[in-house]
Design goal:
heterodimer; A: 304 residues; B: two-stranded antiparallel ribbon; 76% helix
Chain lengths: 304, 280
Amino acid sequence: MAIARAKIKSVGAAQSPLLGAAMFTPAVLYILLLVAGPFSLAIFYAFSDARIGNTEMHYVGLENFRSILKSPSFRIAIRNSFIFTICSQIVVIVGANILAIALEKTFRGRGFIRFLILLPWVAPIALGAIGWKWILDSIYSVISWVLVALHFYKPFNAPMWLGEPHLAIASVLLVHSWRLMPFSTVILLAGRTAIPKDIPEAAAVDGAGFWRTQFQIIIPMMRPILSVAVLFGLIFTFTDMTVVYILTAGGPFDSTQTLPSLAFAMGIQGSDLAAGAAISLFLVPLLIIIAYFMLRVAHRAEVN
Amino acid sequence: MRLSRRIWGKVVHVLVITVFTVLLAFPFYWMVITSFKQNVDLYTMENNPFVFNAKPTLDHLKFLFTETRFVRWLANTTFVGIVVVAITLVLAVPAAYSLARLSGRWGERLGIAIFLTYLVPQTLLFIPLSRVVAYLGLQDSLWALILVYPSFTVPFSIWLLMGFFKSIPKELEDAAMVDGLTRFGAFAKMVIPISTSGILTVVIFTFTLVTQEFVYALTFISSESNQMIGTGIPIFLVRGDVYYWGALMAACLIASLPIAFLYNLFLDRFIAGFTVGAVK
């Protein structure tokens, strides 16, 4: 038996590296071809004058970046990308923490409530966003109806939620927060259930009240999982163009444009591939920073 | 004093749950009620929009299924979903297994590297990919989506499956190999059959990701009959400036509920994939 084991081991060691490589190479190649390939192409386009319908392409150096940085739409887009990402994250983290505490207790109908709460995340966002577009309709908005019924506005005088720049920005922000809240809630809930029950109990015995237990014991213990929720949340919002595209298509007057939606408007709708590619490259620095922090979280878990 | 505090706690708890549930689920409630309202009811501003002011109707559903390509979009989405699931399994299952069993830290590191590519967003790649798709002659073809979608379903699936395979004791394969199976035979005949629940998780996850994708479908597909649900509904159910809100909401509801239900069943496993390492 010992000999058989040893033999297997040597055979395994001899054939495993080849077999192992053969098993993961197709996947790695596919990913390289379809992620690393287009990514390099995006960098390449950003320094060229590539356009849809034109097969010729020339190197133009930093010309695209120069003209982008001058464009007011781009400045609005980069500002909005950060506003949407950061503000919705603040709303989401505060809301998700509260909701996770409430969902931690068992109660009747929790499974069904959880399903309802998760809907914004698990349903396709394009479809959820259309629901909001109807809720925020310029004439038949239910929100306006309620405000008129409560006499905050005269009939036909309610604000155009998606038609005025500031309100449109607030609306996009609302939908992003709505969409992400369930995701962060479930992640935080997973973190809470992983904390041994005797820790909050011991804190209660020692006389710590609810708030002290939460803020001085539970939340510090959840730091790694909180950072996971925040990092994913940042990426999902920062790189999303679906919400803006469906709600406002970047309007009114480019006031809700974000980096991805502007890249689409310029690169695909406007046929200026080079400009679109250059705009989307502005997503990269933040993505790298987030990836760095994710690796740190993963590494810390590995060490522990 | 104690008792009143406990009652207070209960009240606050119920209140928090109610407020959040209403806020988060409201758009879906709104889809339901809009789907069954007559147009006269929907488009009269004096009507209380929360209730039916006229008899409920199935007209919007009829319109959706007979006058639009909605069924075709559902079929397209299912087709793309199934093919992408197949490709994802073929690529991800062996890769995840070999990375999970790779000696030393390298398997883990390669796994993390692959996982990080999942974070490269569609909105960064769609412009160059639109050129690649055109070059391959796949514009306005569902095959463009089938080609491109595995680039984001495979990384996360590998990551999920790696965790799964690691939980299977190595001794199992060793025993199978003592019994005369090759390493690959042990993988195919021993490991895969006991991993069905992990594989099923990947199937559901991949399928829901396909149904939720928007950017590539919007960029690569142009004709009405080739749309996926996520793009067909917002783009082609709007004729000019006319929104058929009843039909739109019905379409959103019908398309999102099954997806939401499936996703919900497996959610805890996906979350485990997101939080590997951060939860002990």
